[in-house]
Amino acid sequence: METAIPVGEQPVAAAIQEAAEVVDQVSAYGSLITNSLYLIIIGMIVVFLLHKLTSKFLYPHIKKPRLMRVVFGTLYVLILVVTMLMVLNKIGIDTTVISKVALMTVLAGAVIVFFLIPFLPRLPFLIGQMIEVNGVFGTVESISYAHTTIRTFDGAMVFVPNPVILASKIINYHNLPERRIALNLIVNLDADIEEVRTLLLKIMNGDERVVEEPAAPLVRATTASANGLELTALCWVKNDDFLNTQSDLWIRVVTAFNNDGRVTMSRPKQEIYIAESKVDKVG
After folding, report:
1. Is 181 in contact with 246 (CB distance < 8 Å)?
2. Which of 172, 191, 206 is the last residue of a domain?
3. Same domain, 51 and 142
4. What is the pLDDT of residues 147-197, one digit of tens each?
5. Fewest C-beta in 10 Å: which of 6, 12, 93, 186?
6. Are 102 and 167 found together in one domain?
7. Dist CA 182 CA 245 (whole Å)
8. Alpha-carbon span 174 to 172, nearest angstrom
9. What is the structure's pLDDT at 236?
10. What is the pTM of this model?
C-alpha cells in the first residue's frame, strides 16, 4: 500500500525525483562522456605536438606555410566534430545526414580560410626565422595572439607586444639567400691606401664562405677627414654564415693591420691646446 504524500511536500518530492532521474541518466552515459573527453584531450595533444614539431622543423623550409596552419586548424575542428557525432550516435540519434553536412562544412570552411589568410593582417615572419624589430635582433621562438617571443643571440627571451611589432620597422633576414657584410674602418692617411685595399680584398677572397654572387668582394672609399680615410669592405655570404663570417673577417683584418707595418688603422686621438695667460705681477 503506497503512502500518501502530503500536499505541501509534493513539490519537494517532485524535485527530488527529477534530480534522481538526471543522476540516473548521467550515470548511464558516464562512460560515454568520459570516453569522449579522453578522445578530445588525446586528439588535441597529438595534433598540438605534431603542430609544434612542424613549426620548429618544417615551417622555415615550406614555401606556403599557411597551408600547414590551415591543415592543423582543420584537424582541431575535426576532432571536436567527430567526437560530437560519435556521442550523438551512441545516444541513438541518426547522424547520417548530420555527419555529411558537418564534415562538408568544416572542409569548406578550411578552403575559405586558406584563401582569406593572405588578405588578413599578419606578422611578416614565422617561427624559427631571424628578424630584427624594435631594436631586438634574434630568432622567433613563438607567436601568440598578444606577443611574439624572440630569442636573442645571448640567450635572452624578449617578449615584444604584437601591436608594437606592427608599428615598427621589421627586417626579416630569413627570406634572403645571401647577406652582405660591410666592414667599415678608418685608415691612417700616412698608410699605403692601395696596400690596404689589396690586403682587404685578399682577406675576403681567402674565406671560402664568401660568394661571388650577387657581387664579388670590393673595397670603397666613403669619406676622408682629418682622422683618416674611411674604407668600406663589402662581400656577400650565405645567410646562415653571416654572423660567424663577419666575426672571423673582423679578427683577420685587425690581426693583419697589426702585423703589417705598411698599413695602419687610424686611432682615436684628441688634441689639447694650452693657452698661455699673462698674469700681471704686483711689484
Report:
1. yes
2. 172
3. no
4. 889 998 888 898 988 888 888 888 887 777 888 888 888 888 777 888 888
5. 6
6. no
7. 11
8. 6
9. 92
10. 0.47
Residue 252: CATH number of its domain: 3.30.70.100
Helices vs strands, H then E, count in the chain: 7, 9
Please state, in angstroms and as integers, the Cα–Cα distance from residue 177 to each residue in 3, 181, 238, 239, following that order.
89, 13, 6, 6
Structural contact between residues 222 and 164, judged by C-beta atoms closer than 8 angstroms = no
Rounded to the nearest 5°, which phi and psi values hold at 137?
-125, 120
Q: Give the model confidence (pLDDT) of 71-110 as tens digits.
A: 777 887 888 788 877 777 777 777 777 878 888 888 888 7
With cell 568544416, the residue in question is 106
203 and 137: one domain?
Answer: no
β-pair partners for 136: 133
Give domain status of residue 283, yes or no: no
Would you tell me how many other CB atoms lie within 10 Å of the CB of residue 237?
Answer: 21
Per-residue pLDDT reduced to its tens digit, 244-276: 899 999 898 888 888 766 566 655 555 566 666
250 with 159, same domain?
Answer: no
Query: Considering the domain boundaries, does residue 3 fall inside one?
Result: no
CA–CA separation, 64 vs 117, rounded Å?
11
Residue 160 shares a structural domain with residue 244: no
Residue 270 lies in a domain: no
Measured at the CA of 235, the angle between CA 230 and CA 240, to 5 degrees, comes to 130
What residue type is 214 in one-letter code? Answer: P
- Supply the DSSP symbol for 80: H
Q: Residue 162's domain is classified under what CATH number?
A: 2.30.30.60
Angle formed by the axes of helices 30-57 and 10-28, nearest 10° = 50
Query: Which residue range forms the structural domain that includes residue 50?
Result: 19-119
DSSP tag of 145: S
Domains of the chain: total: 3
Distances (CA, A) of 132 to 7, 167, 247: 78, 13, 19
